[in-house]
């Protein structure tokens, strides 16, 4: 297991202060995983981080819905969604653009749905 700093190059976050909490995730090295139990433990750690990221993403996406002239499902923006998938595809080459598009469609729709409740 080793830590890897993810450099969100090309993104900027004016609302992120140096003192803000950082999500630090031990990124498992697949070569170091030899058993199902070890691999499942690694998946559990990654899923825990994913859940935190998905929760915060949904909160920020809900804010966007309140700020946009037309929010919610009615205000979906395919160009923006394509740009999101394109940027992510560069970081996840083994998943590829089409799979990522399906994943992000589900993430975005879940966020819009949660924002309406
Ligand atoms: O960026 C926006 O306009 C949003 O509403 C946020 C968001 C997202 O969850 O990333 C949600 C719906 C849009 O279709 C595009 C992106």
From TrEMBL:
Example GO BP: chorismate metabolic process
Domain Chorismate mutase, first and last residues per copy: 30-117
Lineage: superkingdom: Bacteria
PROSITE patterns named in the record: CHORISMATE_MUT_2
InterPro entries reported for this sequence: Chorismate_II_sf, CM_dom_sf, CM_II_prokaryot
GO molecular function: chorismate mutase activity
A Pfam family annotated for this UniProt entry: CM_2
Protein name: Chorismate mutase
Natural source organism: Actinomadura physcomitrii
């Amino acid at each position: 297991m080793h830590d890897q700093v993810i450099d969100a190059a090309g993104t900027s976050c004016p609302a992120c202060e140096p003192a803000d909490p950082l999500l630090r995730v031990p990124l498992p090295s697949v070569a170091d995983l030899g058993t199902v139990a070890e691999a499942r433990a690694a998946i559990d750690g990654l899923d825990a981080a994913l859940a935190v990221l998905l929760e915060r993403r949904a909160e920020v996406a809900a804010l966007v819905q309140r700020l946009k002239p037309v929010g919610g499902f009615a205000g979906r923006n395919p160009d923006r969604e394509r740009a999101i998938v394109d940027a992510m595809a560069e970081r996840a080459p083994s998943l590829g653009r089409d799979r990522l598009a399906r994943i992000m469609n589900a993430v975005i729709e879940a966020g819009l749905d949660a924002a309406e409740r």
